[in-house]
Amino acid sequence: MSQFFGSLGRGFRGKKPEKTKPSPLPSASGNSGNGGASGNGGNGGGGYNPPSGNLMPGSPSGQRITQKPLFLCKPFVTSQLVKGSFSTIVVLPRYVDQGEWLALNLFEFFDMLNKFYGVVQEFCTPQACPSMSAGPGLDYSWLDANKKPLRLPATTYIEYVLQWISNRINDESIFPTKANPSTTTAVNAPSSSVSSSPAGAAGTAGQTWIGKEGGFPPNFYVTCKAIYKQMFRVFAHIYHTHFAKIVHMSLEAHFNSFFAHFIHFARAFELLERRDIEPLRPLIDSFEEQGLFKDNERSREQ
């Protein structure tokens, strides 16, 4: 897997766009782990409100556009670094804790997404992207401290999201970097964590959850899902708004391969809901037809 990410990194040459200083994030009252359309906050860390997925009234992206997006046109839709399925680099390796595998991949996906956003950041201005559009009919909004949806320029929204994710992956109570015996004892988890996770993902005293053996807390899996959802939204904006720039820099094969890997991993570990991927469903369906998500004997033997 590290070789694959390394091949992606080699595509980023030349001077990187300068990072702008992130604006202060909206403060939240209480825990940010809210459910529903607010986007789920990940149950812990930071104390910031997550973005929501509501279409804002009067949104310019709400207008119907019949032209096929560039990323669905040939040859770009079939441009890949990897020929064949991603199964061998997605499947959980033998003797590796699932929590450790989720954390490792999440860190690497987040790091690579930061790099790709850095490539298009200079073009994602408040004038060019006045809202966080994810295609015709969908703008993501941010919830303020009073749970009021705010329409933010895409660059501000993405900076908030990246900082929001960074706060969580650097939170020792969610992603511990040292073994902590207390985290492996039975701990009561929120009822929402139990109902929204696969079998064994979370539980009450005496039960197990994903990542328990690796020292991760009961809300670890729910947090991973929340982070994954927000990363997908950044993908959706880049594809729908900045893919021409990706093509201009000859990075479409890198970006498509990265996204296909991201989606295949999400499928394997149930990190995204069906409704979450709607903005890019045609692209995902195309990748499916190309066999990028096909299982194989080698991956099943690991």
UniProtKB/TrEMBL annotation:
Residues 1-62 are annotated as: Disordered. InterPro entries: MOB_kinase_act_fam (IPR005301), MOB_kinase_act_sf (IPR036703). It comes from the Eukaryota. Zn(2+) binds at residues 124, 129, 237, 242. Pfam families: Mob1_phocein. Keywords: Metal-binding, Zinc. Residues 32-48 have a biased composition (Gly residues). The keyword Transcription regulation does not apply. Gene3D superfamilies: MOB kinase activator. PANTHER family: MPS ONE BINDER KINASE ACTIVATOR-LIKE MOB. This is Mob1/phocein.
